[in-house]
Amino acid sequence: MSRQTDWLQSEIKTWIKEGLIDQSTGQLLAARYPAASTSTWGFSLLTAIGAIVFGLGVILFFAYNWADLPKFAKLAMIFVALLAFHLLGWYQRPPGNRNLSEGFHLIGTMLFGAGIFLIAQIYHIDEHYPNAFVVWGVGALLFAWVLPSVIQGIIASSLIAAWGMSEVFDFGVLHLASAGLLCFGILPLAWMQRSRVLFAIGLVATLAVLLANVGRHVDGEIVAYLLVAVSVLLIAASYLTAKTSFPESAQVLRFIGAFFYGIIIFAMTFVPRFTGWSPHVDGDIEVLIVVGLLGSAAVIWVGLCLYGLKAHFDVTKSMQHGLILLTVLVVIAQAFGVLYLSRTGLGLIYDVILSAHCVLLIIRGTDNLKWKQVAIGCVVLGMVIFARFNDLFHSLLMRSLVFLFLGAMLFFIGHLYSKRKQREHANA
Questions:
Q1: Alpha helix ranges (H) inside 92-171
Q2: In this predicted model, what pLDDT tens digit does every residue of 45-54 receive, in sequence order?
Q3: 29-41 pLDDT, tens digit each
Q4: I need a labelling partner for 174 at 20 to 30 A (CA). Which of 12, 190, 285, 360 fits?
Q5: What does the alpha-carbon distance between residue 357 and residue 377 come to, in Å, rounded to a whole number?
Q6: DSSP class of residue 184?
Q7: How many angstroms separate the CA atoms of 12 and 3, rounded?
Q8: What is the DSSP letter of 185?
Q9: Which long-range contacts (CB under 8 A, 24 or more apart) does 50-57 make?
């Protein structure tokens, strides 16, 4: 909202000069809609990149004569550099230069990680290597809470996720501690800092570690089913968090949920048709996990649909909700072998569901003048049509008709959106 608030602040000054409003009214309006902060993510990102590059330079400088230095000198350089950069960062903390403080602390965190590996090298410690990631990650997490710092939280998320993934895939360990640390260490911090970026990274990292554990230790073939359930639950949760103290989290939940939902449904249009993949859930643990998540998703989604119909009836939105519920039911039927269809038939069901979502998204985007929804709907619908281009449309005539249909559809949608926008401007 920074552009809108900056524009409004400028207009308020103009209104005061032209006598449209008095000085006191202008001050009240300016106080209600404060100007955006000059500290932006662009500067923070640039500072972070500079700190990382500088930290790498420091590490390489130490490495140049590392073998010739005595152990005491090596340890002294590691701890002095680590302490110096964190002290510099603490000195520059607000009301000082926040970006500079973040940069110094970031270099200190990098040197902390380098120190872990260098000390292991000095004393020839042959330790379980994922432990280095957890020590480094917990250190970054502590700084993320103490400062507090979103960038430190992002680094901690990456390191803790690396810890969990390395334990799962390299050592075959059922590792829920990393997922718990991400869930209870990163997500509350993101919520307190109202950071959409950290919330998204922490949420994706948590889900990735949990799904990796399920895929490695239960059954990798049911991960797709779980992603459908998780995506639906995330979209449902977005309606709840929209009314909390961190309403921006709803956008994150809805985006991640819709992204995973779209990816899995698009993949389902291919996989059953070409590989015959349609695993049936038979193990006790598999049944418990799949029934628990998919069943919860279906029940919660039905409740959300009923609440939405009671609060405010919207035809296209209700149809989208109905399609999501249909998807969950189809996945449940597929998982338990209730849906007796050929490979092509099963793939066509997902084709129809995804295409219907795209059409509804285009209609909603056009009605509400939201070009992103229209663009996403057009792009995904085009992807579905082209995906079926080779395996459904064999004759040259049919392929030409597909191109004619797609081109005419995009032209009509663009024309309709343009007319709608002109009508809105005329009525404004």
A1: 98-122, 130-146, 150-171
A2: 666 676 667 6
A3: 777 666 544 445 5
A4: 190
A5: 8
A6: I
A7: 14
A8: I
A9: 50/103, 51/102, 51/103, 51/104, 51/106, 51/107, 51/110, 52/106, 52/110, 54/103, 54/107, 55/106, 55/107, 55/110, 55/111, 55/114, 56/110
